[in-house]
Every structure is written in C-alpha cells, then in structure tokens.
C-alpha cells in the first residue's frame, strides 16, 4: 500500500500510521462508511479502503465524541481495514485519528473531492488487482477492434500482423500478450515492457516496428474483442456460412472466436480486416450470416406453401 503515496494522480499524503503503511489492499471495492459511523455494521465491507467525505465529516462533527470514537473503533476492528482516507483535503477529527492509531490502521488524505477520488482510485485498484494471464499470440488493433491472433508456432502470426501494420493498423504485442480482466467484464491486452514495439519475424529476426513504421504504428494497450485462430487446412471443413458464433473463455470473460485455415494464396491480413469489421457489425446487432440464412429459410417456406396450393 505504500506505493499509493507515489501515485501522483491520487494526490495522497500520510497523516499518521506510518508503521502500518505496508498493509495489503486485496479488494478493488472502495467504501463510504456512513452507516458504520452510526453503529450499523451489518454488511459492512471491512476489507475495503474506507473513504471519508464531507458527508461523513459533517456527521462526525455533530455526533457525541465518545459514541463516535466507539463506533469508529468497532468499525475498524471488524476486519482487516487497509486504510482510511480523508477526501476533499479534510483534516481528520481527533476521534478518527485516535481510532486509527489504536486499530493500527494508516490514515491518509487527498485534496480530491470524494466522488472524483473514488472513481480514480477504483480505476487504479482495478488496474493493479485484476487477474492477469499471459497468452502466446499477437495483438493487433484492426479498424478499432482489438484482434488476438493465435496459432501454432511457425504458422505465420507475426507475418500476418506485419502485413496488417503495413496496411495502416496498429501493433500492441507480439509473441507474448499480457491480458487483464478489467471489472470482470472485458479484457485488456498489453505488451510486457521488454518486448514493447518489437517483433520477431522468421527470416528477418527482431525488428523495431516503431522505428520502421512510425510512432502511430504501436499502442500500449487495447481491449480484446475478437480472437482469430490460424490453423492448418482442416479435412472436415468449417462452417461455410459463419452462422455459428464460437467463443473462447479467457479469465472468465467470453470473447468471440473464429478459425482461419492457412493455405497458399490466402491473404490472411485482408480476411482479418473483414472479420474485424464484421465483428463490429455484430456488436451493433447486425449478423449478416444469420440474416442470409433466415432469408433462405423464408424462401423455402414460401416455395413449399406454393407447391401445396
């Protein structure tokens, strides 16, 4: 937790409890302890960071000092409260300060208003505490869609990504993609620091994409909205119409997935471009394959009725 003081966008400073500043924050939720200050501890989120805003400060000023100190002491003894933060540059009351010291809980303050701070702080905690995994593949931004290209070694993932970059699209990560589940709802892919803007292309070796194609050819991170798996030609074939909507599960998040067989003469970069644009249409509720299939079924039903007559 000591690194919080180094995060400039949070503008935090330590008031007291330096000895306990190394407490760990394990939950992404942030709590306003309004009811807890009144003594109501049912469903109190004791493992969350507690933020005091102007409302809490106003209540503390009106409350009986003995009762207030008792309520805060009970609140901080409920669980492993990581810290208490005073927002809006508020000075903590002596009762709050004493309770924090007695419970070994560090007390901090910020100049930011409580609503703005909680929004920024929640985002920071989500970035730090959300689950992370590393995937072998390439992540490219194609027409604003984050496309994760996967496949066996030597199948041509990097070559395909290189062609996409030449066509004006953006590289995020090559070979190793660091994936994080943000808010448990969407995936953000990025590149490990050592590999940023580098690619390994068989026959060429390591190339610096940023120097070759300009600073606009790389991006630090991007949401993953489509997975494309490159495979050798399949004997059993694939869904020709594309009616089936396959998905892959990464860190508990379902991501649309499609398979592209790699055969001589196929321009995979163009196919991935079209797949990304088609995925954008699907996200807007336009599913071309299903619409076409439905038209065929409607035509067949109409023809059957005409034959019955």
Descriptive notes:
- This protein is α/β, with parallel strands linked by helices.
- The protein has two domains: 2-129, Udp-n-acetylmuramoylalanyl-d-glutamate--2,6- Diaminopimelate Ligase, Chain: A, domain 1 (3-Layer(aba) Sandwich); 132-291, Rossmann fold.
- The chain is built from nine helices and 14 strands.
- It has helices spanning 34-37, 54-62, 65-77, 94-102, 114-129, 157-166, 209-213, 268-283, 288-308; strands at residues 12-16, 30-31, 49-52, 84-86, 107-110, 132-142, 145-151, 170-182, 186-190, 198-201, 205-208, 221-231, 246-250, 253-261.
- It has a five-stranded mixed sheet with strand order 1-5-4-3-2. It has a five-stranded mixed beta barrel with strand order 6-7-12-9-8.
- A hairpin with a 3-residue loop joins β10 and β11 (205-208).
- It is elongated, with a radius of gyration of 27 Å.
- The termini are far apart.
- The model has no long low-confidence stretch (mean pLDDT 90).
Task: Give the helices and strands, then pairings.
Layout: E1 12-16, E2 30-31, H1 34-37, E3 49-52, H2 54-62, H3 65-77, E4 84-86, H4 94-102, E5 107-110, H5 114-129, E6 132-142, E7 145-151, H6 157-166, E8 170-182, E9 186-190, E10 198-201, E11 205-208, H7 209-213, E12 221-231, E13 246-250, E14 253-261, H8 268-283, H9 288-308
Parallel strand pairs: 2-3, 3-4, 4-5, 7-12, 12-14
Antiparallel strand pairs: 1-5, 6-7, 6-8, 8-9, 9-12, 10-11, 13-14
Helix pairs in contact: 3-4, 6-8
